[in-house]
Design a protein that fits this description.
Layout: H1 2-33, E1 36-41, H2 55-64, E2 74-75, E3 84-93, E4 96-106
Parallel strand pairs: 1-4
Antiparallel strand pairs: 2-3, 3-4
Length: 107
């Protein structure tokens, strides 16, 4: 009986930690979604970009604003390879995905 109580206490503790992590990720999500991350790129004829903005570049720009995002967390639905505003998914947790606004401007 004592063993079961200890096991239950461990399970409850794990659950609380998980809930706290999700809550923290939700707070980070709100902050990220209120910022537009801007990239200035050189373009060729007709405003075409050379290449695209990589997940590494996106992570670096987001981290400049005080976040701790790894490039593996960034899931662009389509390549960021044109001028304008793009939405990029950032998987902060299995249950929490932020949508970052990436604005690409001509230099």
């Amino acid at each position: 009986n004592q063993q079961k109580k200890k096991e239950n206490a461990k399970i409850i503790k794990k659950k609380k930690k998980k809930e706290e992590k999700i809550k923290k990720c939700e707070e980070i999500k709100k902050k990220i979604e209120n910022i537009t991350f801007t990239f200035k790129v050189k373009t060729g004829k007709e405003g075409k970009m050379f290449g695209c903005i990589s997940t590494k570049q996106i992570a670096e720009e987001i981290n400049k604003k005080g976040f701790n995002i790894d490039k593996k967390m960034i899931k662009p639905l389509i390549p960021v390879d044109t001028l304008g505003v793009h939405n990029v998914d950032i998987e902060l947790h299995k249950k929490v995905t932020a949508v970052a606004k990436i604005e690409v401007k001509e230099v």
